[in-house]
Amino acid sequence: MSKIKIMSENLANKIAAGEVVEKCASVVKELVENAIDAKANNIKVNLEDGGLRKIEIIDNGIGMDKEDAVLAFARHATSKIYKDDDLFFIETLGFRGEALASIASVSEVNLETCSKDIGTHVHIKGGKIDLVEPADARIGTSICVTNLFYNTPARLKYLKSEATELNNCIQFIEKLALSRPDIAFALSNNDKVIVKTSGKNNLLKTIHEIYGLTVSSNMLSINKTSDDFEISGYIGLPGLLKKNRNHFNTIVNGRVVRNNDINRAINDAYYTYKHEGFYPIVVINIETDPTLVDVNIHPTKQDIKLSKIDELCKLLYETIKDTLYKNLLIPDAIIDDDNNNDDNDSNLVNNVNVNYIKANINNNEDENIVQTAMDFSSNDKEENIIKNEEFKGLKLYPIGQVHGTYIIAENEDGMFILDQHAAHERINYEMIKKKFQEDKPTYIDMLIPFSIELTASDFVTFMENKQVLEDLGFKIEEFGINTIVIKSHPTWLTKNFENDNLKTIVDLVILNHKKFNKDRFLDKLAKMVSCKMSIKANEHLSKEQMEQLLNDLVKCDNPYNCCHGRPSIMKFTNYELEKMFKRVI
Ligand code: ZN
Ligand code: ZN
Predict the structure, then answer these.
(1) Whether 284 contacts 266, CB under 8 Å
(2) Closest ligand to the CA of 426
């Protein structure tokens, strides 16, 4: 019996219109998704010249009989949806019947497929079937697209260079492979294999195959469930940063998706652990009731809308943040001379390889949260685990200051370099955040109250939101037209804090009034204040001041970064020093 039915016109119209095929990667996408829907677990993509010359997809799926093979090229033919209601319970990837027809209408296609030992070959050019003949029996389907856009010069013009088209295809296959570790993918261009996964249904192994060992051995596993969502997967340590968000791999119910709210939640969770403008590598699976997902807002189906998105973002944010927090990190600043850089690592931010020392904050039932590639590869990179408890008891002895900016310290284990501003900023940041928790803030009356004149609209905005500052111990009154006067401020506002900075705090309230979020505001405030209050570079420190700084830093919850994510301390172990000077080989 034929598996393919013609969609009702009504249903076809319900599906957002739009061009499905615009570049080589969209052809690859549609054809590979068809292969997945045909239950293939081995899919090969062979390109020539990045797909410009040829795109061939070979799968080991269920294949088609002659009738289906011909029908597959009819517009709105789909084996996946039959009636309107089904649209809302989409579980297969390629539900838009027009894909194959669209592709065939602008190219030349050779299809070889087989069902029940009877093979069929179909040749179609410019949408017209000109050959249907028996073919050898085979497993699955092979479809080969050549001469893309040969009959639509306008679109041909929009195809990019070979490199760009190839890159798009690679990115697509890599993301898809991460979403389906149970399928073996291979992508080659001009006979050179570029992506290859083994389909062993082990996500960490797939990450290893895509990103290489440096990445896979620095991933933390996450796992969390709420009423509506179940999240799992791996998040990269903050040392493995990339320059864009392409490596935020989010998968909802098996589908690779793109969603700005989700991306923001991930990025926010790494807040203070990384530089702004750099992004971690994550692979996160989200399972939820399909009725909460609307995938139909864009024809390429990557963008999704989710009901209860806020609940999901909160869950993601907290899970990632907790996981990072429990696996605090001190970069181990050894220059990696045996860096057998796996291809994909070239744009990693750290050219100094970062071996992380994991410091577990809880003492601790959660040890198995740190599950790394060690689990499957016999990677014998020694792992240096310092419990945070130990770090808190760590004694560091100052040796001196370099360029008035860095502090050199030592202990029996090795040598440390600190950025004095970053370290002090971290200390102040955590101190201020703790003060925010206090029920009864302590404050100081100012000798000379400070008045600030605002524009009319800023004044209104500020007065509406000033409670947040009052809760912290600021006393603020109205003082004439559009002017406020600050009469007292919290006690933690100390060194280097002159009136100018009070103005900055008021500006911060005004700036953040849209979608005001108290936690976010307080965090920004703490960052700003701690930066201003901290020792600057080019500031001479006495030995006592250095000692104080070292003592305070080791007591921090996260001594390793300033609140903006810059490193505050680096370690050179004795072994590394010896290795650098070839005392050991
Ligand atoms: Zn700063
Ligand atoms: Zn900073």
Answers:
(1) yes
(2) 2
Among all bound ligands, the one having the nearest atom to the CA of 272 is 2
**What is the rounded distance in angstroms from the CA atom of residue 274 to the CA atom of residue 324?**
11
CB atoms within 10 A of CB 367: 14
- CA of 320 from ligand 1 middle (Å) equals 25
Cα 2 to ligand 1 centroid, rounded to whole Å: 67
Q: Identify which of 418, 432, 501, 512 has the alpha carbon closest to the alpha carbon of residue 472.
A: 432
Q: How many helices (H) does the chain have, and how many strands (E)?
A: 18, 26
What's the CA-to-centroid distance between 360 and ligand 1, angstroms?
A: 26
Q: What is the residue-level pLDDT of the chain in tens, covering all 585 positions?
A: 455 555 444 344 333 323 567 789 989 998 998 899 899 999 999 999 999 999 999 999 999 888 888 888 776 544 444 444 444 444 444 444 567 888 888 889 999 999 888 999 999 988 888 899 999 888 899 999 999 888 878 778 888 888 889 999 999 999 999 999 999 999 999 999 999 999 999 999 999 999 988 889 889 999 999 989 999 999 998 877 887 888 999 999 888 888 889 999 999 898 877 777 788 999 999 999 888 887 665 555 567 788 889 999 999 999 999 898 877 656 555 444 443 333 333 333 333 333 333 333 333 323 232 333 223 333 335 333 344 555 667 889 999 999 999 999 999 989 999 999 999 999 999 999 999 988 888 898 988 899 998 888 889 889 988 999 999 999 999 988 899 999 999 988 876 566 777 888 999 998 887 777 888 889 989 998 999 889 988 889 999 999 999 999 999 988 888 998 888 998 888 988 998 898 987
Q: What is the value of pTM for the model shown?
A: 0.61
Closest to 172 (Cα-Cα) out of 258, 282, 264, 84: 258
- Ligand 2 centroid–CA 241 distance in Å is 17
C-alpha 48/C-alpha 541 separation (Å) is 63
Give the closest residue to 368 by CA, choosing from 326, 328, 331.
326
Nearest Cα neighbor of 305 from 232, 255, 230 is 255
In this structure, are strands 406-411 and 397-402 parallel, antiparallel, or unpaired?
antiparallel
Separation of CA 417 and ligand 1 centre (Å): 17
Cα 418 to ligand 1 centroid, rounded to whole Å: 14
What is the whole-number distance in angstroms between the Cα of residue 425 and the centre of ligand 2? Answer: 6
Does residue 183 contact residue 177 with C-beta atoms inside 8 Å? Answer: yes
Residue type, 191: D
